[in-house]
Design goal:
Layout: E1 2-5, E2 38-47, H1 51-62, E3 67-70, H2 79-82, E4 86-87, H3 95-102, H4 104-127, E5 139-143, H5 146-160, E6 166-169, H6 171-178, E7 185-189, E8 193-194, H7 197-210, E9 214-216, E10 223-227, E11 230-235, E12 238-247, E13 265-274, H8 279-284, E14 292-294, E15 302-305, E16 310-315, H9 328-338, E17 344-357, E18 364-369, E19 372-376, H10 382-397, H11 421-445
Parallel strand pairs: 1-17, 2-3, 2-12, 3-9, 5-14, 12-19
Antiparallel strand pairs: 4-8, 5-7, 6-7, 10-11, 11-12, 13-16, 13-17, 15-16, 18-19
Helix pairs in contact: 1-7, 1-10, 3-4, 4-10
The chain binds flavin-adenine dinucleotide (FAD).
Length: about 450
C-alpha cells in the first residue's frame, strides 16, 4: 500500500486566519469585523469569538443585554473551526459517573442537556437560517477491543432501557455501516450527527450581530481589572466598561486572568482531508453519512464528505508548540488498515487545533470573581456543549445565579503538574500510541479472512 502527501495547500500555522479545511468552501465568507477602538459601555463583555463566545453573545443580546465581544484573530479561529464536526448527543463520561459526580438531580439535568444538544443546535440553526451542513444521521462508536465492546453494550443497555434510539451493531452490521470489517462491533446513537463548524460559528456570530451585539475581530484583550464596581477590559486601541465579563478562550487562554491558564494543558490535535476518493471507494465508506470514532486512546474521528468524496480523519503530530509536521506514516497506515480499499491515500490538506485538557477531562464554568465567569474544557464535545454553556453564561447576564446553571460552576483547579505537563503528556501520548498499536495488532488477527 502506498501513502503519499501533496503540498497542494500549505498548512496554516497559528497565524491570524483560520486554516484551510474541509469546511472552508462551504462556510461562506469571513465576517471581516473591525477591531475595537475607543471607550465602550456594555452589560456583558465577552473575550473569545469561538462557539462558546458567539453563543453567549447571541443569547445575551437576544435577552436584551448590551454585548461587546472581542476576538484576537477571526471569528471561529480557535478550535471552533478546526474540529472534526461530530455532534455526539452524550457526555464523554458514562451516565453513572456523571450522576455520581454531580448528584442525582444535577447529573440528570446535565445528561438531559447533552442528549438534547444536537436538537437544540438544529433549532438554533433553523431559527437563524444558518447554512452549515447540519445533519443528524446518527454517530458510530466502534470497538477495537472486547473490553470496549462490553463498555458499548453497557451504554447501549442504559439508553435502550430509557427508550432511546441507540443500538449495538455486531461485527457484520458494523462492517456494513462503516465500510470496514476491522472492528469487533460498534454502537450507533441515532441522536448524533455532524456539522460544518466554521459555517456554524460564523452563523452564530452573524445572528448575534443581528440581535444587537457588537463583535470585533483582531482585538486581543490585554488587561482586565475591577474599576469602580465595574469590570474594565482593555484592548490595544480601546476599552470596555462592563457589568459582567465572560472569558470564552478555552485552550487558547492566555495570561489575561492570573492562574486560569494553569488549570488546563492545551494539546494540539490534527485533522487531515484526503484527495477526493474514487467514486466506488467513497461510496463504500460510512455510506449512511454518520461520522465515527473508535475506542482507541488517541483521537480517532473519521467522517466521509460524500459531496466531494473527501475522507476526513484525525491523526498524530507534535502535541505542543508551533504546528509541526504530522506523523504521516502512522496516520496513513492506520487509515489503510481500517479501510484496505484505500490503496493509495493522498492528503490534500491538514490542520491542527488545541484542545484544553484539565484534571478531570471535563468541562468547567468558573466564577472567578463576582461578574467574571470563564468556560473551559469540552474536548471532543465542544460544538454542542460550548453552545449550551455559552447559553448558560447568557442566562447569568439576565440575572440567573451561576449556581443555577445546568453545568454547576466549579472552583478553578490549578494543575499541580502544570510546569512539567509537556514532557508528562508527551510521554503519555507515546504510551497510548504503543498500547493502541499492540491492540491494533491483536485486532488485525481477528479480522475475517476475506478482508
Ligand atoms: C482537532 C479537534 C477536533 C475536535 N473535534 C470535535 C468534534 O468532532 N466534536 C466536538 O463537539 N468538539 C470537537 N472538538 C472540540 C471543540 O472544537 C471545542 O471544544 C470548541 O470548539 C471550543 O469552543 P470555544 O468557543 O470554547 O473555544 P475556541 O473555539 O478555541 O475559541 C477561543 C477563542 O478565544 C480567542 N482568544 C484567546 N485569548 C484571547 C484574548 N486575550 N483576547 C481575545 N480573544 C482571545 C482565540 O483567538 C479563539 O478564537 C475538537 C477540537 C479539536 C482541536
Amino acid at each position: 500500500m502506498a501513502h503519499s502527501r501533496r503540498a497542494m495547500y500549505l498548512p496554516m500555522h497559528d497565524d491570524s486566519r483560520p486554516p484551510h479545511t474541509t469546511y472552508s468552501a462551504g462556510a461562506g465568507t469571513p465576517l471581516k469585523l473591525g477591531p475595537l477602538a475607543g471607550h465602550h459601555r456594555a452589560d456583558v463583555a465577552i473575550v473569545g469569538g469561538g462557539i462558546a463566545g458567539c453563543s453567549a453573545a447571541l443569547h445575551a443580546a437576544e435577552a436584551g443585554a448590551r454585548v461587546v465581544l472581542v476576538e484576537a484573530n477571526e471569528i471561529g479561529w480557535g478550535a471552533s473551526s478546526r474540529n472534526a464536526g461530530h455532534l455526539p448527543p452524550a457526555t464523554k463520561h458514562d451516565p453513572d459517573d456523571i450522576i455520581a459526580h454531580y448528584g442525582a438531580a444535577a447529573g440528570q439535568r446535565l445528561l438531559d442537556a447533552a442528549e438534547q444538544g444536537p436538537v437544540v443546535l438544529g433549532e438554533l440553526i433553523q431559527r437563524h437560517g444558518i447554512d452549515c451542513d447540519y445533519a443528524v444521521p446518527g454517530i458510530i462508536m466502534a470497538a477495537h477491543t472486547e473490553k470496549a465492546l462490553r463498555a458499548h453494550e453497557k451504554r447501549v443497555a442504559y439508553w435502550q432501557a430509557r427508550g432511546r434510539p441507540v443500538e449495538l451493531l455486531d461485527r457484520r452490521r458494523a462492517a456494513d455501516m462503516i465500510g470496514s470489517d476491522y472492528y469487533l462491533g460498534a454502537a450507533i446513537d441515532r441522536r448524533g450527527g455532524r456539522i460544518n463548524p466554521l459555517a456554524y460559528v460564523r452563523g452564530l456570530a452573524r445572528a448575534a450581530i443581528k440581535a444587537g451585539a457588537a463583535l470585533h475581530e483582531g482585538t486581543r484583550a490585554t488587561g482586565l481589572a475591577r474599576d469602580g464596581g465595574k469590570w474594565k477590559l482593555t484592548t490595544p486601541q480601546g476599552e470596555i466598561e462592563a457589568e459582567r465579563v465572560f472569558l470564552c478562550t478555552n485552550a487558547y487562554t492566555d495570561n489575561l486572568w492570573p492562574g486560569l491558564r494553569a488549570t488546563i494543558v492545551p494539546v494540539r490535535a490534527y485533522q487531515f482531508a484526503s484527495r477526493p476518493l474514487r467514486d466506488n471507494v467513497a461510496k463504500s465508506i460510512l455510506p449512511g453519512g454518520q461520522p465515527m470514532t473508535d475506542s482507541r486512546r488517541l483521537l480517532s474521528g473519521i467522517r466521509m464528505h460524500h459531496g466531494d468524496g473527501r475522507l476526513q480523519f484525525g491523526g498524530q503530530g507534535p502535541a505542543f508548540g508551533p504546528q509541526g509536521e504530522p506523523d504521516w506514516r502512522a496516520t496513513h497506515a492506520r487509515l489503510q488498515r481500517i479501510f484496505p480499499q484505500l490503496r493509495t491515500l493522498e492528503t490534500d490538506y491538514w490542520w491542527s487545533g488545541f484542545m484544553a485538557f484539565n484534571a478531570d477531562n471535563s468541562w468547567h464554568i468558573h466564577e472567578l470573581a463576582p461578574g467574571l465567569l470563564a468556560m473551559l474544557g469540552c474536548n471532543g464535545r465542544g460544538v454542542v456543549l460550548a453552545t449550551l454553556w455559552g447559553r448558560e453564561l447568557a442566562r447569568h447576564a439576565a440575572g440567573v445565579a451561576a449556581r443555577e446553571f445546568v453545568l454547576p460552576p466549579s472552583a478553578p483547579q490549578r494543575l499541580w503538574l502544570h510546569p512539567v505537563a509537556r514532557p508528562l503528556v508527551s510521554g503519555l501520548i507515546r504510551y497510548y500510541a504503543l498500547r493502541d498499536a499492540i491492540e491494533d495488532r491483536r485486532l488485525e488477527r481477528t479480522r475475517p479472512v476475506s478482508a
